[in-house]
Amino acid sequence: MRRLIVRPEAEADITKAAIWYESRESGLGKELLSDIQQSIARALHRPEAFLRIRKNPQVRRVLAKQFPYRIFFILEVDSLIVFAVLHAARHEKIWRERLRRS
Is the pTM for the entire model greater than 0.70? Predict the structure, then answer.
């Protein structure tokens, strides 16, 4: 089993989104958190099943099931590194810039 690493910027993405949803309706932020956790668990279980969007480093994307979020992760031999959790409407360059900085 690979080790899960969630980078601070991805944690900030998740927290910001959960706060926003919770401010719209009580309990919705918790539903978002659960959806993202389940999506990450699916990626940990079968990472190769998800769309590869970059070869080197190997970046893949898993979609949340209930909310319009994309979870971007780097797949390494011994770990899965989540580096961005972005709303589907946000631009692709955000995750690309984060990847360049890492």
Answer: yes
